[in-house]
Amino acid sequence: MFRPISATAIGLALALPVSAQQTSDIVVPEPETGVTQAFQGISDAAVAALEAKSEGRVVEAETWMVAAAHPLAVDAGARVLRDGGTAADAMVAVQAVLGLVEPQSSGMGGGAFLVWYDAATGEITTLDGRETAPLAANPRLFQDENGEPLTFMDAVVSGRSVGTPGTPRLMEDAHRRWGRSNWGGLFAEAITLAEDGFTVSTRLAESIASAAESLAVFSATAEYFLPDGAPLEAGATLVNADYADTLRQIAARGVSAFYTGEIAADIVAATRTETLPGLLSMRDLERYEVIERPAVCQSYRGADVCGMGPPSSGAVAIAQILGKLENFDLGEMDPQGVETRRLMGDATRLAFADRGRYLADSDFVPVPVAGLIDRDYLAARADLLRGDDALPEVSAGEPEWEHALLWGDDRTVERPATSHISIVDADGNVLSMTTTIESGFGSRIFTRGMLLNNELTDFSFRTHAGGHPIANRVEPGKRPRSSMSPTIVLRDGEPVLSIGSPGGATIIGYTAQAIIAHLDWGMDVQDAVSMPHLVNSFGTYQIEAGTWAEDLVEPLQDLGFQTNVTALTSGLHAISLGDGLRGGADPRREGIAIGE
Ligand code: GLY
Q1: Which among 414, 437, 479, 481 is the best mutation to test ligand 1's pocket, defined by most ligand atoms within 8 Å of the CB?
Q2: Closest C-alpha to 422, from 480, 482, 485, 510
Q3: The dihedral of CA 67, 70, 74, 75: what is its sign?
Q4: Ordered alpha helix ranges (H), 279-374
Q5: Which of 50, 131, 169, 243 is most buried, by CB atoms within 10 Å?
Q6: Cβ(436) – ligand 1 distance below 6 Å
């Protein structure tokens, strides 16, 4: 039987009375650690949204809504929407502020995927703004002279890991297609915050402290995040004049100011690190393009779940998980039940086995997307779940496709950084965008006020496995495989949900569970994003520490699963549509939803 679960009931949120009149210096409890976090200068609406989140309440609105990872970024988006801007306009303002106040997760130096529902046409469009391997790269980019893979963190903290950023071009492309506001004006709020300074949040301070050693490797990065050699503390005011200047140039001249000229030259120069220098060139930056890709949609319980296809594995994996689980009546099953979790865990493992073999940039390798999400194929894979115990072994299936090549299996895992933005505008357009610089603080290279990504480490470091080439190997101009899963769910052609999360490879499990919680168990979006996580991608069931999920450790072990109790810090943001707009923000992070 379904038992409703509220954030308060699962102990993830602590209520603290906060005056809705207050416009600055709000202090709310940080749910994970109990330490306080400070957000200076946020709006009344943001104060109220933080209060709602701390009480596990959904945010309701009629006309527009924006949900993202930091109150200042959400405020910037809300102002654009209130002034009549579109969801694409608001995204530009949100992303510009996120790059300043949550620099460890996303920014101009990174990449993103965007899913758009157009209210006028009823169409879904997906845009690929993924970082791209330099033209000078080769499949041995991350191998030593003996052909052995480099140590992962050595590769990350280097110019070698930096791919051509895609986020600025994606922002401009989305604005050109669907924007209405003046482009330059969308950066005003971020520029002011960068020049006047913003308050370092608890999460940013904790992230800096835990990454301090790697942030000390490059001097410009150390000067910004470790002034006088010590990590910035929560509550400190941080000014970023270089970021303001970068944004001013983009605001005035468009993103050609980023992809050519002095900013591009500084990016290229910054990647020429002493150890493992990067291969990025001015030509790579100049030729960068956003690619419109076919959306990947799967019908599930009468809805259509649509997301980003290759080079992301997100939508295909979610479509596979849902397509298998549709063969079982989850709606009648207990969300906290061990049988429910056996099915969800092994459905996810099977999806990851297929992902490891088949998913990569489809401009470089044939990817059997249609075969992988075919109902008959998924029904046959679902038959594997009809036993009583954990699957002893999981391997890739054989979807129907024309291609003769066999691929090797790849277990490359994306790191848990990244950020998610969901927006609905007054015209009824819906945006779902997941944005990243890969691991927390990316390559750790800081130039022109921004961190550069380490996205190329999402490629396989090895070129072959079991005698077969790996689909996700490095190739010049190729985009690394991702787990990012920006998703829009439609019912009868009308959008009913925009959702996504950070979390590296666990993004897929986080997002799939929240969709199931909403569609099968009828949870509102706040409860769906707050729900404790149990994710099994590679065989070990990861179970969220400090939640009811821990009660399932022994029952899952009894079925044969290995388990690991750990922090599972998703950052789900979701907006449901239908009877008004309802927004949910993950209590594990600093984000909020605001609407009117
Ligand atoms: N770098 C995170 C992802 O692409 O999944």
Answers
A1: 414
A2: 485
A3: positive
A4: 282-286, 314-325, 338-358, 369-372
A5: 131
A6: yes
Which two structure tokens, joined as six digits, stand for 341? Answer: 């979790």
164 three-state secondary structure = strand
| Domain spans, the chain | 80-292+412-500+515-522
CB 573 within 8 A of CB 430: no
Q: Which residues are marked as active site?
A: 418
Q: Which residue has the tokens 């927006």?
A: 423
Tokens of 444: 């750790």
Ligand 1 within 6 A of CB of 438: yes
- The DSSP 8-state label assigned to residue 504 in this structure reads G
CB-ligand 1 contact for 434 (6 Å cutoff): no
Residue minimizing CA distance to atom 1 of ligand 1:
438
Q: Which residue has the tokens 């988006």?
A: 77
Nearest to 206 by CA among 12, 27, 434, 440: 440
In angstroms, the Cα distances linking 449 to 107, 168, 285, 286 are: 10, 14, 18, 20
| pLDDT above 50: residue 23 | no
Mutational pocket test of ligand 1: of 114, 436, 481, 506, the residue with most ligand atoms within 8 Å of the beta carbon: 436
Q: Give the closest residue to 511 by CA, choosing from 204, 306, 358.
A: 306
What pLDDT digit, counting tens, does each position of 475-532 carry? 999 999 999 999 999 999 999 999 999 999 999 999 999 999 999 999 999 999 999 9
Q: Is the CB of 418 under 6 A from ligand 1?
A: yes
For residue 24, how far is its CA from the centre of ligand 1 (angstroms)?
34
Mean residue pLDDT across the chain: 93
Residue 127 and residue 174 in contact, taking contact as beta carbons nearer than 8 Å: yes
Question: SS3 of 152, please?
Answer: helix
Q: Which has the closest alpha carbon to 455: 421, 433, 484, 486?
A: 484
Indicate if ligand 1 lies below 6 Å from the C-beta of 454: no
Greatest C-alpha distance within the chain: 65
* Torsion from C-alpha of 406, 412, 413, 415, nearest 10 degrees: -140
Atom of ligand 1 nearest to the CA of 438: 1
Contact 115, 497 (CB under 8 A): no
Q: 173 alpha carbon to ligand 1 midpoint, in Å?
A: 21
Between CA 310 and CA 369 the distance in angstroms is 8
Indicate if ligand 1 lies below 6 Å from the C-beta of 435: no
By alpha-carbon position, which residue is closest to atom 3 of ligand 1?
482
